[in-house]
Design brief:
six-stranded mixed beta sheet; 31 strands; 401 residues; Immunoglobulin-like; 0% helix; single chain; five-stranded mixed beta sheet
């Protein structure tokens, strides 16, 4: 290399002495352009007679080999991805050598030759045990050619960060809620990055704005496939159906999306409903007799179709009702149920209760169980009838009847 110190050893036989002489020279390599040069040796004896046939050697002055690596498409990868390093080697010695990449103290040795200055190396990240951490991994490159001239270790400027994409596996929550009802949901997920801080968000009806769901304490991934977190979900005060998507991210802000920082959105539909209510209008009378018909009139207020469940002296039955609301506004509808009082189900002179409860048609969670039950009661009192009259004979004093 120009300007460096080198040692030249010359073995020459002086014919008149018939012995070999070994000469070592330390010399400064001249600041010459990298090329091949010839050094000719001569000597002068003690008698000042020059010796001109000591010979010559070829001497290369070369620059140290160098390498450049094309910029990667991105700087963050999952720990099972493939990364391709496209590199270019410059070596003016026209020899071969070895290129050594080092990532996380793991060397990758690649021989090179003078006709292979441009090449690429495919790296499987998982082969080197690269895991998520707060700082990136630097790629180092070391070149040494066949003349043992090296570029020393140097950092290429290429870095790799490891971050795996979280994945939501399940959302556990009530699908039908009251407009006043908040709830705690359970989010199940997996994430391979140990100690990675996570945040949780949801969007509504594919909107661009996301709302953060804050757990009781900061959440860090444990690197497992069966992780979960309880999160408070606020109420939806306007009745209707809401298409939610839940997200997990390692970014400090939902809008700041980086490679593998956000999970895919996990869809979940919630229906928010006004609490239905129902009442029984008072009967015209409080007691009935056999064969009478009693009309039970229910006033239903709801914003959807549903079913009235009624319990008459322990016998449960139901009536479906239909309401076609506009803009999810609750409407009122009257429903009539007629029963006939007979001897098989109506005992004489006993009180009878009639209880009803309202269940929405879409209410798989029976939220209407919260509505106040309506109840009425009445008596069965039959009017007595005279079947016959027996009059005993009237006996007079004188025996006449």
């Amino acid at each position: 290399m120009p300007g460096s110190i080198t040692t030249i050893q010359l073995l020459q036989q002086f014919k008149w002495l018939a012995v070999n002489h070994k000469i070592s020279l330390n010399m400064q390599v001249p600041e010459k352009t990298a090329s091949k040069y010839q050094i000719t040796f001569s000597a002068v004896g003690n008698d000042n007679i020059p010796i001109n046939d000591l010979g010559s050697i070829d001497f290369w002055i070369v620059d140290p080999p160098s390498i450049s690596i094309d910029a990667l498409e991105r700087d963050t990868y999952a720990n099972n991805e493939i990364v391709t390093l496209n590199y270019h080697i410059t070596d003016s010695s026209n020899s071969g050598g070895n290129l050594t990449f080092t990532i996380k103290e793991t060397p990758i040795v690649i021989p090179y030759t003078t006709d292979k200055y441009q090449s690429s190396k495919t790296i499987n990240v998982s082969d080197y045990g690269l895991e998520y951490r707060g700082s990136p991994y630097h790629i180092k490159a070391h070149l040494i050619n066949d003349y043992q001239i090296t570029n020393e270790d140097y950092t290429t400027g290429i870095t790799i960060s490891i971050r795996n994409k979280p994945e939501i596996t399940d959302v556990v929550a009530k699908k039908v809620i009251l407009t006043t009802e908040s709830q705690t949901i359970l989010l199940r997920y997996k994430d391979k990055d140990n100690d990675k801080k996570l945040k949780f968000y949801y969007t509504v009806n594919d909107g661009n704005d996301a709302t953060e769901l804050k757990p009781a304490s900061d959440q860090e991934s444990n690197g497992g496939d069966d992780q979960s977190i309880s999160l408070p979900l606020p109420a939806f005060p306007n009745p209707g159906k809401y298409n939610l998507k839940f997200y997990i991210t390692s970014s400090n802000d939902y809008s700041h999306k980086e490679t593998n920082s956000h999970s895919d959105g996990e869809p979940f539909e919630i229906e928010s409903k006004n609490q239905p209510n129902v009442k029984i209008f008072k009967f015209d009378q409080q007691s009935y007799k056999y064969n009478d018909q009693v009309n039970f009139i229910f006033e239903v207020k709801d914003n959807t179709n549903g079913t009235i469940f009624y319990d008459f002296d322990g016998n449960v039955d139901h009536i479906d009702y239909t309401i076609m609301p506009e803009n999810n506004e609750a409407l009122t509808k009257n429903v009539t149920k007629t029963i006939t009082i007979d001897r098989s189900n109506m005992k004489y002179n006993k009180g009878h209760s009639y209880t009803i409860q309202l269940i929405n048609a879409s209410d798989i969670n029976h939220i209407a169980a919260n509505c106040e039950r309506a109840q009425q009661s009445f008596q069965v009192r039959n009017i007595p009838s005279i079947k016959s009259v027996k009059v005993p004979p009237l006996v007079t004093k004188d025996g006449d009847s």
